[in-house]
Each structure stands twice: as structure tokens, then as C-alpha cells.
UniProtKB/TrEMBL annotation, chain A:
Primary location group: membrane
GO biological process, one term: ATP synthesis coupled electron transport
GO MF terms, alphabetically ordered: oxidoreductase activity, acting on NAD(P)H
Originating organism: Natronocalculus amylovorans
Lineage of origin: Archaea, Methanobacteriati, Methanobacteriota, Stenosarchaea group, Halobacteria
Membrane protein topology class: Multi-pass membrane protein
Entry keyword annotation includes Transcription: no
Keyword Transcription tagged: no
UniProt record similarity statement: Belongs to the complex I subunit 4L family.
Gene name per UniProt: nuoK
EC annotation from Swiss-Prot or TrEMBL: 1.6.5.11
Protein name: NADH-quinone oxidoreductase subunit NuoK
UniProtKB/TrEMBL annotation, chain B:
A Pfam match: Proton_antipo_M
Protein name: NADH-quinone oxidoreductase subunit L
Gene Ontology CC annotation, any one: membrane
Coarse class of the protein's main subcellular location: membrane
Membrane topology, as annotated: Multi-pass membrane protein
Domain NADH:quinone oxidoreductase/Mrp antiporter transmembrane: 142-434
Transmembrane domains' residue ranges: 6-26, 33-53, 91-113, 125-142, 148-167, 188-207, 235-252, 273-291, 303-324, 331-353, 359-379, 400-420, 440-465, 486-504, 552-574, 654-679
Annotated localization: Membrane
GO MF annotations, alphabetized: NADH dehydrogenase (ubiquinone) activity; NADH dehydrogenase activity
Record key words, sorted: Membrane, Transmembrane, Transmembrane helix
TrEMBL record, chain C:
Transmembrane segments: 20-41, 48-69, 89-112, 124-143, 149-168, 180-207, 219-239, 260-282, 294-314, 326-346, 358-379, 400-423, 435-454, 480-502
Protein name in the entry: NADH-quinone oxidoreductase subunit N
Predominant localisation class: membrane
One cellular component term from this protein's GO annotations in UniProt: membrane
InterPro entries the record matches: NADH-Q_OxRdtase_suN/2, ND/Mrp_TM
Superkingdom of the organism of origin: Archaea
Span of domain NADH:quinone oxidoreductase/Mrp antiporter transmembrane: 143-450
Membrane topology: Multi-pass membrane protein
UniProt KW keywords: Membrane, Transmembrane, Transmembrane helix
Native organism taxonomy: Archaea, Methanobacteriati, Methanobacteriota, Stenosarchaea group, Halobacteria
TrEMBL record, chain D:
Domain NADH:quinone oxidoreductase/Mrp antiporter transmembrane, chain residue ranges per copy: 131-419
InterPro entries per UniProt: NADH_Q_OxRdtase_chainM/4, NADH_UbQ_OxRdtase, ND/Mrp_TM
Chain segments annotated as transmembrane: 29-47, 84-107, 114-132, 138-155, 167-189, 221-243, 255-272, 284-307, 314-333, 345-363, 383-405, 425-445, 466-489
One function term, GO molecular function aspect: ubiquinone binding
Protein name, as recorded: NuoM family protein
Amino acid sequence: MVPPEYYLLLSAAVFCIGLFGVLTRKNALYFLMSVELMLNAANINLIAFSLFWGNMTGQTFALFVIALAAAEVAIGIGIILVLYRNFGTVSVTDATTMRW
Amino acid sequence: MVAAFDFVPAIVLLPFVSFLIALFAGKYMPKGGALAGIAATAGSLLLSIWVAISLLGVSGERIHQETIYTWATGIGDQPWELTFGVLIDPLSALMLIIVTLIATLVHVFSLGYMNDEGETGLPRYYAGLGLFTASMLGFVVADNLLMAFMFFELVGLCSFLLIGFWFRRDGPPSAAKKAFLVTRFGDYFFLIGVVAVFATFGTAQFAGPESFPVLAEQAVAGDTSVVNTTFGLEPTQWFTIVGLLVLGGVVGKSAQFPLHTWLPDAMQGPTPVSALIHAATMVAAGVYLVARMYGFYAVSPTALAIIAFIGGFTALFAATMGVVKREIKQVLAYSTISQYGYMMLALGAGSYVAATFHLMTHAFFKALLFLGAGAVIIAMHHNENMWDMGGLKDKMPVTYATFLAGSLALAGIFPFSGFWSKDEILYEAFIYGLNDPLLLGGWVMGLLAVPITAFYTFRMVFLTFHGEPRSETARNPHGFGWNVKGPLSVLGVLAVVAGFINMVPVQKLTGIELDFLTQYLDSGGEGLTYSGYNALLAEYGGYEAGVVGTEVTTLLIAAGLSLGLAVTGLLVAFKLYNVPEPVEHTAKLGQVKDVLYNNYYQDEFQVWIAHRTQSVAAVADKFDQGVIDGVVNGVSSVSLFGGRRMRKLQTGLVTNYAALLTLGLTALLLAFGLLGGWFV
Amino acid sequence: MDPTVVTTAALQSQLPEWTALGPVIVLGLTGLLLLTIDAIWPKRNANTTYAIVSAAGAIIALGITVWYLVAGTGQETHGGAITLFSEAIVVDGMALFFTAIFTSVAALVIVASHDYLKGHENSAEFYSLLMFATTGMALMAVSNSLVTVFVSLEMASLPSYALVGFLKKDRGSVEASLKYFLIGALSSAVFLFGISLIYAVTGSLLLTEISAQFADGGVAGFAGVAGIGVLMIAGGFAYKTASVPFHFWAPEAYEGAPAPVSAFLSSASKAAGFVVAFRVFAEAFMPLLEVTPAIDWALAFAVLAVLTMVVGNFAAATQENVKRMLAYSSIGHAGYALIGLAALTAGGPHNGDVMGAAMAHLLIYGFMNTGAFLFIAMVEYWGVGRTFEDYAGLSQKAPLACVAMAVFMFSLAGLPVFGGFFSKYALFASAVSAGFWWLAAVGAVTSALSLYYYSRVVKAIWIEEPNGNLDVIESKPTGLYAAIIFAAVATVLLLPGFPIALETAEAAASALFA
Amino acid sequence: MIIEALIAFTFAAALLVFAVPNKYAGKVAFGLSLVPVIGSLYMWSLFESGGNALTGGDIAFETIIPWVEIAGIQVQWFVGVDGISLPLVVLTTFLTSLAIVSAWTPIKERQSQFYGLMLFMEANLLGVFMALDFFLWFIFWEAVLVPMYFLIGVWGGPRRKYAAIKFFVYTNVASLVMFIGFMALVFGLNVETFGLPEITQALANDQLGTWFGIAPDTLKLIAFLALFVGFAVKVPVVPVHTWLPDAHVEAPTPVSVMLAGVLLKMGTYALLRFNFTMLPEQASLLAVPIAIIAVVSVIYGAMLALAQTDLKRIVAYSSVSSMGYVILGLIAFTEFGVGGATFQMVAHGLISGLMFMSVGVIYNATHTRIVSDMSGLADRMPVAVGILIAGAFAYMGLPLMAGFAGEFFIFAGSFGSTFLPYAPIFTALAMFGIVIVAGYLLLAMQKTLFGEYRLETDYEVTAAPLHDVAPMAVLLLAIIALGVAPWVFLDMIFDAVAPILANGGGL
């Protein structure tokens, strides 16, 4: 059996990759994808430790998360769509009419 | 039986009622309320005489003290009682007569000076006179120091109102302000003194077994339990300080050096007001106050010596300034300062009677001189410059005769009233001064002032009445009626005869009892008598009469010296000014002339102080606006600056937000992880 | 006890247990009903109908909640908390208290939106989104497991993103929505990762089991994982409550969103973040304060509280735009409410007081802040402008509303005249009794500063002369007016009525620590 | 119940006046404001003094209703009066009525709001002086600021916005400091309610424990300082006075009257109630610094008044000066000192009210307040000027007027104080204020009222209307009445002050 630390390291790595994407990508779609990565990093934990602890809670929750991630992307895409209509771009750094 | 003393409050209230009548109903009344004022003051005069005579009564009280109204009462075991009451003894009875008499005459004279000259604002004028009289009478009958202070201040208010009567001109309001302010400066010390008396003795009564002079005597005699002195001072030292503090008020109101500067300026007021101020009310108040609480001063000889020295110095100092003045009222003003200096000298020298005596005679002859000057001013169409007058004696004989009587009294020429009182002062100062250098200094200065007084007085008389008329108005003077001549005549008689009530030198020489005033003043209640004060002075002040040879020779030396000097001064004036075309001789004085014209630059000095104060105020204002308020505004600016910095965190770039968010979380994780020891 | 209370209590106790979720169900069904009506009768101008239906739903839910609160459902007096669905849901005093806040705010916002949405397309969507978001919040209040917490949180968030971007032709609204969404997505990822770490450590997602696990075994050997997990969860809540440094979305979202939505988000959504944070930390993570090595999340919240109070209030001080100023002020208020978490101590006798005070503050804040944003909504409705200068002299056109606005501002500033003072005071005082005088001190200083910027609004509307831009004001929108006045009356009445709010809140909070 | 009726009626009157048309608002407000006047006089007629409300004496018209318990301490509706508060209650009702009349001329727009706010402020002021629960008191205390903020901000002069905000924020920050200080004390005390009597007596019984490791004495000192700073701003004393001239200059006449007449007294009233009644030992410890502050306020305030060219600023700064006397009287801690300070609160309320009204009447006629812009006004408005002169002399402490009584009691009380080291020196220094006050008032009067008439206007300046002069005359009569018969208030004040002095450890 793979020691649980390995899963933790894997999920942490995936989380960090996602976070890196969030911080560096200007394109809203990349941003969304990076967030998906971060959510899935959590999923790795949930499923791995579901096995570790021998209960189904984690796995069930992971399913919930996948559904919610889909809903989030749906609304995200909608917002990116109106962003494009109003600002003519999908770059997250162009919409800066409000600041300070 | 109806006792005279029951009417003492009425003496004060009658003029007060006339004040109210004149103020609220004056414009509906004939003569603008003058008649009510005359009636009230005359009524007060009659009551005062009745009261004074009652004191002489064989079986009657010699002293009458009564608490009329409790103003405020403290709590606790020995509460302070702040009360209003009347204290009638020979001193106050005498003063009541003087004040009411002069006030009545001034009211009558005002009919001629104000009404007949068509002045406006007469109700205000008569209201002021009424209140002035009432305040002074209240002050005179006061049975405690606090009440005295309160009426003392009201007197100051009235002087402000009356000096500034012609408020539409520039001069009178300024003079009124100065009068109030300078006397206020003195009253500042007086108020400290009042407060100190309360704090020390727990009472401010003038008379009675629990009065503060009595307690002071007990303390000086060794029973210190009755007083609370401050700073661990000995009773005598502390009483000297308190006495000097009260003296501040006296110096202010009685126009003694260095607070005399307001008085000449106060000539801006109507002349009858000047007469009232100088003879009977405001200026007299200071001297009267010292006499009133003489028992207290008697136990602090240092204070007395200072009083004497100030008095002697003022007498001389003011007299020198009177020499060069051009306006008739200015001369009189400086003579007033000088004469009150004599009274102070007398008080300081322990001769309470002499001071009171001179206060009385001076009241008569100075009122006379002012009213006479007023008559001259009416005649001269309100031109006061003596160099424009001359030769008036033929045109206005009554005025001349009475004015001359007053002048002789002022100059101290035998046998006019001023001679008797002034001579007594100088004699007393001399005999006690033989044992006290400070007192002797006062005497010397007082003596030196005698010829100067005679000189300027007769310079004034000669310039005004003698010689040839020097202007058109002097040739055709304005006429006036009985209401001017009447008061002049009454006062003229008094100026001549008033001295006879206390001919102490004659008594000493002949042995006939002629010291009526001394006896009268010695007839008061316990602790308030002349002999009582003398005993105190001898016991605690070390006042001991010295003699040159025998008592009679001493007397003759003193009297002869002063009379001789007075006559000398008179003769010099006669020589210089009793000529058809007198000229100014001031050039002979050289540099001194300028100094005298400018009153020793005392006014400049006080103006300088006032301006410096204003400069300091301006600096304080700058400081307040700049520094103190600047700090307040600075705090808000700094906060807002912080706010503007804080805003900049929000750059508007969502990636920055993500980065800052991550950074914040990481920082939090690291800090807590490392400090909490999670990774060990 | 009052006889009517006895009868209603008796009536309630005869109902089946699931009815404890009544408010949530009513809210959810109302949302669905709106969609159904829209689907069956797709009329363009049915704004009024939708408003009435949704307002009715919110008010019914509020009524039920208040009834339960009075009757004692799920509270100490009546057998304690009611748990449902294998303890994933719990109905207790705190849940009901917060549901009352959400539904009141929702009702006010709905009434106000009726005027605001006049002439807008798709008003049905607006109301249903609002109802769904409220449902999500009500669910957050009853969540007793990290699963329900996460799901309900997302359920409240997703409609909110759409609501913020509801004016889809308005660049501000869209930008606000984008920023809100992006930060929200990031935060929910962080939050979820934190949950997964807690699951990794404890093997459970039920709050009570997590608590038991920590209390039994401590965190020895895996403190790092547990600590990171706890702080990440805290971060998720910090996002929802707009606390520094997770607040960056808030100024833009509140400024850009339609004002009624701003009102809703800054009052209800913030309160929702707090209720779930209160429950999670008080129920699940209390033992962590005592274990070694300590995972002192209370200190972390204290740091956040101080940062939030300072940044929120200072940044608000210099704003030109009134709505943005209010946005920052609402961040500042999050800082005050965070004291309710920061001043908790393990087994501390004042925990109930502290948290109760924070709850009472959130209740009063719900009214005064909603009212303030609705006033902004009215100004937007008139089209007067957004800056302080534009607001000059408004009182001459709308005195009554301006009186209400002055009440809101002074109450937000914590002037003793209105309810806001009592709740702030209760918060600071209980923090002091719990030993956290320095938190109270920072709170007091920043609230002194806040007076400055709140009074700027009052100054603008009451003291400044109008500068000619007020001619556009033609009508007085009844719904907006009514909502504003109602909020103002509630703010004023919560001064004398504060004991009721505080006692209820303290009882509810104390039950968590029992 | 009479207190509740009084406060409730005044609130209701305020609401009613808000609804009255502008045209009638002034008259209606005046009519309504007479009811509190009568009510307070009725209270006075029923009042029997019996000690100090805080130290266990009788509390007249007492009501206690529990309100809410916060952090273990009960907040109550607790009101009542004693010999210290009753004079101030009478002052408040009396001055409000007169201030309302004096507003008839200058207030030309939004009248109903103006008069409504005046009455609203009156209600809260009554609350301040009658509340005996700290919390309740604090609510009223702060609630006074709100109407004041509007009254200055809406109806004020050119810089009204700056002045209003400055007043509002400054005094609020001060209140906060004070509040924190007092709370520290209350939390350390373990009392059950915020009732001021309970707190006072607990402090007197040394119930204060260690709190957050702060020893009781240190805690008391901190609390004393915080309270003092908080109240000092309100009084105000140097150096926290700078809001006052700005507020006064910008405020319309009736508002200045209320500000100087009543609002400043809140500060001194609170100093007496809190600092000096509850913490006499700390007062003793800090006696010298406080006396220095008092003396500096008197002299520095008077010097600033001397430097001003605006009549209203002169009067405003002179308030700073006069309030310095009150502080001196309080710190003297003698019967006449503290009692005189309380009396001076009333006296100064009336006199400064009169002065501001007079300046207002002049301004109504001339539309300027700058000294150098005018001269000889006595010629055109004799009655108003006459009353102004009388008021100025009252301000200078002319005997038989209220100001002298207050000042004399203070001086007499402080000179012999054993509580304050070097008391005679401090008293003598402070007394110099009576010279400077005469200086600047006489100077200003001479320049504006006397001399040849000169004022550049395009209209004829005429005598002031009756309804402007009438309140001034009434005030003047009241000032004289109090000066002649100070005992009407002084006896009850002394009665309430004596227990405080006894509380000071027999000092």
C-alpha cells in the first residue's frame, strides 16, 4: 500500500500547480482550468484518505465536488462570455474600471 | 419708637429708586428725572443727618450694626455667612452726610450744567447719578468687606457709565474704559484680599467681637488658633500681605501712584460728575475703606508705613504735574490725586481722625472747585483752556468768591478749612515720623507738596479770573441761574467754616475743647474708636509720638512750616500770574517741562504695557491657530493619508488580488506553523 | 410564561422533526415557483407578481423562523438541537437566529428591487436567484458537516456571482462579477483543500466527530497537516465574510453590483459566512486550542480581525464614491464581527457572550447596512450620481429617506443613539471580559475614525447645497422607500429592543459551547 | 414619572415641530418649549434637597427600570435629580425657550427642522442631567451631538461644514476616550449595574480589584485621566479647545447660545459627577497639573480673546476662560469651590447666552461681526446695546450679577483649599482673568458701540425688534436675580456637594 504521505505530497503538488496557474495566467479560461486543478487536488486527498480511513465519506464528497466544479465552470463561462461582450477580451487584467 | 437706624437702608434705596425712575420713566418726566434724583438725595441727606445726630444721643446706641440680608450661607460646623448689613458708627454717619450732601448739590447743579445746556440723554445721566450715589452709600454703610467690595465695584461701573456719558465722541468712551480698567487692576488685588480675609478669618465683618480686625488682633497677640495663615507665615507677615492686597483696590480707586492715570482722563465726563467722583464717591471710597478697616491695618505697621509712603509720594508727584496744566479741570484733577495722597499719608501715619477730617474738608472744597470750574466752563461755552480765560471775576462775582474760598482751602491758608485738616495731617506725620524714617520720608514729601499746591491753585485762580480777558468768550461769558449759584454758595460757606469742627492746634495751645470731630469719632462702639486704634498702633505698631522740644513747639514748628510754605507758593503764583497779560513760564523748567506735560510718561508706560499685552495676545493667537489647532488638523490629515495609502492596496487587477491573497495566506501559514511548532 | 407562547410552543412540538427545516424548504420552493411561473407565463412585465411571490416566500420563511425562535425549537428549553440526515443538518438557536437575519434582509431587498428592476428583462431570474442564494445561506446556517458546509456555501455563492453580474450590459457589473467569481473560485478551492486535509487527519467530515477525534487523539505527528487545513478553512470563511486579506473582491463587487444585490451580499452573505464559521470553529475545532502543539486559530482570527478593522476603516475614510465607501465600511464591520471568533478561548466562560454579541451585531448590521445600500439603490434609481458631491443636498428632495440614511450612518458609526452602538459595545465589552482588551481597543479606535467618513455622507445629504443635478428626481419609488424606512425603524427600535436580540443570541451561542 | 413625562414630552414636541409648516414652526416650538420650563419649575417647587445622588443621598423623582444586561452588567433606565443637577435642568429648559425666540429673526429657512432639532437637543440635554445610569447617561450625552452637528452644519456660517465635522469628530473621539476609561473602571469593579450611585459607592468602599494585571490605584489613575481628557474636550480647556471657536463662529446665534450656555456645562457637570465624586484621591494626586490647566485656560483663553477681531470669537474664547474658573473651583475641593463651580455653570450659562444673543442681534442689524467694521452702534440700537453692556459687565463679574457670585464663591473656596497645594498662588493667578476679561470686553465695546456712528450698509440700521430684545431682557433679569439671591440654587448645591467633600477622605 502506498503510504498516505505520498498522496498528500501529490495533492499538494497539484494544488500548487493550479495556484501557479491562477497567479500567472491572464486568460480567464486558463484561470478556470487552474482552479479546476486545485479542486481536483482536494479530490485526490478525499479519495485517498477515504481508502485510508475505510469509510465512504470522502469518495461521496468527491462526487459532490465534481458536480459543484461543473456548476462553477458553467457560471464562470457565462461570466467570461459577458466579459467578452463588454470588454472585447477574455483577459482578466483588462477589466480595471474600479480600483482603490 | 421710630429709630433713625431703621431708615438706614432707605438712605441707600432712595437714590436707587431714583435710578430706576430715571432709567425707565425718565423720558416721560420733566427735567429728565432730575427732580426725582434731587428729592431722593435730599431725602437721604435728611435721613443721614438724623442718623448722625442719633449717634450723639445720650442714651442711644453709639454704634449700630444689623444684618439685613443673607446672600449665601455655607454648610458645616462653622459656615461662612456672606451677608449684607449696615454698620453705622460716627465714621460712616459722617461719610453718609458728606456723600448725600455733595450728591444733592451735584444734582441741583446738573440742572444748570446739563438741562439748561440742552443735553440729550438726560434720563441716562440722572439714572447714572442715582446709581452712583446709591452704590457709594451702600459702600459706606457696608458692615463687611465683601459687601464693601461689591458696592466698590458698582461704583466703578457707574464711573464708567458717567465718564463715558458722551459716548458719541471718541474721548469719553476711551477715558471711561481706562478708568474702569485701571481701577479694575487695583480691584484685582482687592478681591484677592477679600478672598484671603475669608480664607484667613472665616468672616469679613468690620465690627463686633467676631470681626476680622478683632481676630487679627487676637492672632497677633498670640492666639493663632482663630486664623488660617498661608504658607506657614507668621500672622503679622500674612496680615501685612493681606492688607497690601486690599490696598491695591484703594490705590486704584483713590488714584494713588501708580494707578492714578485714569483720573485726569476721567475729566472727559460731565463736570458735575467729576465733582461727584472727586469729592464724595469713587475716589473717596479708597480712603474710606482703609479708615473703615483701620483696626486691621493697625496691627500691621509695615502696611501702614507703605501706605504713608505711597500717600506722601503721590501728594508730591501729582502736585508737580498740576503745575503745568492748561485746562482748568486738569489742574483740579491732579490736585485731587495729590490731596488723596495726603489722606493716605495721614492713615499711614496713624492719624485716622486727620484723614477723615481732610476727607471731609476736601469733599467740600473740591466739590466747590469743580462746580466752580463747571460754572466757568458754562460761561466759556465749554472751553476749558485757562489761557483763553482771564478777567472773569468781574463778570461772575459769586463764582469768583466761592472759587477763591475753595482755592484758599485747597492751598491750606489759615483759617480756611483745608488748613486745619492738612496741618493736622502734617503734624501727625511729623511727630510719628520722628521715630520712623519711612514715615518721615512721607512727611517730607507731603511738606514739599504744600507750596506746589498753593502755587498751582493760585496759578489757576489768577489765570482764570484775574488779568484781562484773553478771548472773545471770556469777554462775553454765558450766564447761568440759581441752580448753579446755589450749590456754589452752600459749598463756599462750608469750605470756609468746615475746618472749625476740629481745631486741634488751637485746643493744644489754648486748652479749650475744640476737637469736636475727634470726640465724635471716638464715640463709636468698641474697637472702632480713634483711641482704640491708637492703642493698637502703640502696642503692635510701635507708634510713638516724638517731640521737638515741647509739644507746643513741635506744633508750632509743624504748623508754621506748612503755612509758611503755602503762603510762599501763593506769592510765587501771584508774582508770576497775577498780571494783566500773563505768559507761560514753563520754558524755564527746561527738559523738566516735557516730563511734566507728559505726566512723567506714566500714560505712555501704561499704553506700552497695554500694547505689549496685545502683542502677546496676538502671538498666543498665532500659536493657537498654528500649533494647537495645527496638531488637531494634523491628526486628521495623517489619518486620511493613511487611508489613501490603504486604498492603493486595491489595484484593480484581479491577478494582484489573487497574489496578495495567496501571500497573505502563506504568511499566515508560515507564521503560525513556525511559531506554533507544527512541523517539528 | 406568556400563554400564547405556551400554545404555539405546544403546537410546534407536535410537528414532525423535518419541519424544523421549514424556512429552508419554503425559500427553496419559492425559488422554484418563480421559475415555474416564468416558464408557464413568460410575460415580460410580471415584475410585480414575482416580487410579491418572492417577498411572500421570504416573509413566510421569516415568520416560521421567528415562530420557532419564540417557541424554542432546537433550543435548550425544548430538548436541544434537532439533528437531521445523519447529523449533517442541525437546527438550533443559532441557525434560526441567522435564518431570521437572511430572510429579513432578503425581504427588504426584494421589496426594494421591485422598483429597481422596473423595466428590466428577466426579473424572474433575479428573484429566483435571490431566493436560491437565500436558500443556500439558510442551509449554511444549519450545516453540521463539512460536506453540507461546502455544498451550501457554493449554493449561496453561485447565484451571487450571477446576481452581481445581473446588469450584463453594464461594464461595472460585469467586472464586479468577474472579480467576485475569480476570487471566489480560488477561495473555494483553498477552502476545499483545507477540508480535504482535515478529512485526511480525522477521517470524518461531521463536525461533532472531528471534534471528538481531536479531543481524543490530539494532533501529535500531523499538526502541520491539521494546521494548514484549519487555516485554509479559515481562509474560505474569510473570503465569504470579506475579511482581509481575502477581501479584495468586496469593494469591486459591492460597487459594481446592482445596489440591492450589494445590500444583500454585504449583509446576508457576510452573516452567512459568519454563521458557518462560528459553527465549524466552535463545534469542530475548539479542542485544537488546547492540544500540543497548539493550532491557535483564535489568534489567527484576531490577526485577521485587526487587519480587517484597520484596512476597512482607513480605506473607507478617503473614498469619493459613496457605494465604495460603504463597501469598505462593510469590510470594517466584518472585522468587528470577527472578534466573535478571535476572542474565544478554550473553555472560556465568556465564549457565549462574545459570540452572542457578534451575532447581535450581525443582526443590527443586517438592518442598518441593508438600509444604507438600499438608499444607494434609490439614488441609483434616480440616476443622480455616485460620488459624495452628487449626493449634495439630497435631503431637500427626499427628507424622510435622508433621515433614515442619517440613522444608518450614525448607527454604523456606533453612535449611542441607535442600535449599532449597543451591539458594538456588547462586542467590545465581552471581548474585554474575555481578556482581549487590545481587540476592543483597535475596534474602538477604528470606529472613532469611521465616524468621520460616515458623517461625510450625512454632511453631503443634509448640509451641502444641491448643485443642480437633483432635477432628475421625479418620482418616489414606494417599495424602496418602504424598505428603507422599515430598516431605519428597525435600527432605531433595536436600541430599546436590544435586550431581546442580545439575550436570544447569547443563549444560542452558549448552546454551542455547552 | 415627572422626569419621564418631561423627556417624553420634549421628544414628542420635537417630532411635532418637524411636521409643522415652516411659517409657524418658531411660534409653535416656543409654545411647546414652555411646557418643559413649567415642568422643571414644578420639579424645583417639589424638590427637597437631601444630599448627593451618587454618594447615597436622596434621589428626587427617581425611577429605575432594568433594560439589558451586557457582559454581566445591567443597563437600566435610571433617572433622578439632586441639588447639582436640578439647577442645570432649570437652566436647560429656560435657555432653550429663550434661544428659540432668539432664532425667530436669524433663521430664515428650513425652520421646522431647525426648531425640531432644538427641542430634540433639549430632550437629550435633560436626559444628560437627569440620567443616573452610566449607559443611559452616555446615550443622551452622545445624542446631544447629533442635533448640534446639524444645527451648526445646516444653518451655520460660511465655514460651517468644517466646523460641524470638527466639532462632531473631536468631541466624539473625546467621548470614546472617556468611555473606555470609565469602562476599565467598571470592569475592574465587579458591579452588577451601571447605576452611578452603585459605582460611586463601590469605589468608595475600595471594591476595585486588579484587572488585567493593573493594580487598582493605577487603574483608577488611568480612568481618571481618560475621563478627564474626555470631559476636558467638552468643557473645553486648553489645549483641547480649538473646536470651540470654530463651532461658535459658524453656528447661528441660538445655537451658540445653547452651545455655550448648556453644552459646555455637560463637560463640567460630568467632571464633577465622575472625576471628582468618584475618584477624589486621583484628583488629589493630580491637583497641581489640573490647577495649572485651569489657570492656563483662564489666562490663555482670555489672551486669545484679546487678540480676536470677530465679536463672536471674543465671546467664544472668553468661554474657555470662564470655564477655567470652574475647573479651578472643582479642583479646590472645598464647599465654596465645588459649590461655586456648580453655581458658575448656571451663571455662565445665562451670561454667555446673553452675550451670544447680543452679538447675534448686532449681527442681524449689521451683517458683520468684525470689530473694525462698525462703531457707534449705541446710537442706533440703544436698548439692545444697553443690555449688551449690562451683559458684558456681568461677564466681567460685576457684583450683584450672577457671574460675580459664581466667581467669588470659586475664588473664596479655592484660596483656602488644603486639597490643592499652592492654592493661594493658583487662585491669585486665575483671578487675573477678571482684569483681562474687562480689558477685551471694554475694548471691543468701545470700538463697536461707542464713538461716532459708522457702518457701511445700504440700508438704515434701526433698533432691534421686540422679540430679539425680550429674551435678552429676560436673561438679564435672571442674571441679576441670581446675583442678588444666589442662595436659591446655592443652598441645594451645597447640600449635594457636601457628601462629595466628605468622600474625599476628610481632606
